[in-house]
Amino acid sequence: MLMQTMQTTPISGQKPGTSGLRKKTAVFRAPHFLENYVQSTFNGIGGVAGKTLVVGGDGRFFNDTAIQIILRMAAANGAAKCIVGQGGLLSTPAASHLIRLRQADGGLILSASHNPGGPDADFGLKYNGPNGGPAPEAVTDQIFECTQTIEYYRTCTADDLDLETIGQQSLADMDVEIVDPVADYAALMETIVDFEKIRALFAGGFTMCFDAMHAVTGPYAHAILEGILGAPKGTVINGTPSPDFGKGHPDPNPTWAKALIDKMYGADAPDFGAASDGDGDRNMIVGRGAYVTPSDSLALLTAHAHLAPGYRDGLAGVARSMPTSRAVDGVAESLGFGCFETPTGWKFFGNLLDAGKVTLCGEESAGTGSDHVREKDGLWAVLLWLNILAETQKSVAELMADLWATYGRCYYARFDYEAVDSAKATEMMHDLRSKLPMFAGASIGALEVEMADEFSYVDPVDRSRSDGQGIRVVFEGGARAVFRLSGTGTQGATIRLYLEQLETDHDRLQEDAQKVLANVRDAALQLSDLEAITGRTAPDVIT
Ligand code: G16
After folding, report:
1. Superfamily of structural domain 409-542
2. Which is it for the CA torsion 346, 348, 354, 355, positive or negative?
């Protein structure tokens, strides 16, 4: 085996976004692109000599090839050991757990999350630190700096490793252990939720449909729901991971999981429906005729978490990203614990979780999680919901109606304008920013602006500061509009417009969300000039 030092030069466009580096697959496959980024990651974290890394991905096209490249580079950079999911598969939460369980020094997770996969679709890579969580900004900044000065990368000549056979192998002086991607994760879930109660629920005839969207949660859901918990065969649909996700878009929302939504709103709907995304960290929850927004799901889980063994002693606190609806705030206040507001990006929850300030966190982008790992966790959310359904013996619709009757309902929607010309999206945000001082007190249509600003965050643990984290306009009467540019898109810019309206009138808790949000939508479009500047008259996706 020959150790090689390959000359290279910096490649532009290697700045990590909200969650690692995401690009078109063809970009990642271009000469030196992946190698430059992997070496820069190793350099940015102070080298990997003597370290143990977890490596795995969501099984999308190029996953297997990229893993072999990473393993050769890790060996050539002197890593002591790589722990790899069988077949190169690890869901993002399972990878986070494995890093923590094995006290590894970090991990490389190959995924573009909910983005489609395939040679013409998307690929991604991110580094998670020893706490199992996505690298904080200080580390990703360091990695980016290394991408701009890189001169060479290290690799070696070696045959591809057999990723299918569980057990020990070696690559030069590095140990490689291939592990069952599901077993440790399933064992962790059993310590958190009441498997006995859920088993009894299924044994009593409770019905469910879990859509794995041809992505990584298939094997996890088959093993846990149909295997350990005894749900009938067929409960899990689209449960075999495929490199192009069955040519689908593995994003668990009403647009991309429409077949599941139709089933749940049709005759003979099961009691409970759920879906997860490409890498298994997102989730969608839907009851019979009752879609639950991610923000509401966070509030519901917060209100009832104590029913699960893992949270029996109560929660230390909760956290949500700024654009996530304020539904959980009321629950936290009434239960007497803190509610933190962070920028978008799971990495911002890491310090709060590590410091024991929060137990649960969540985001409007279909992510919920807890201190059991340092990533959001789709299947965990589904299992916690099942635990709550088993304990309360109520339907999803009943649980939501109770929650809204107690705390009011935060009607909520997110409008995504995708692949917008980047210059125009930047212009719109720039204009909006410059007009902010004029907004307070202004009347826009039926609404009056109470406060408008650009969100900045100072981490309460390490005092690091993050500016420019979204523009928010709060109106009198519980309405709010938030504008952000996505940090996960791979084509042009994606403008996200988040709309919210709190309703406490008990007679108005079952209205159509889009109708309730019409005033705040109109005000937001007027304030931002979004349609005139971008030329877009409608969002591509509403979730
Ligand atoms: C990632 C991050 C989330 C974030 C989401 C959307 O999720 O981990 O924290 O909310 O992207 O980010 P943006 O609005 O910038 O596109 P995932 O599931 O894509 O890894």
Report:
1. Alpha-D-phosphohexomutase, C-terminal domain (3.30.310.50)
2. negative
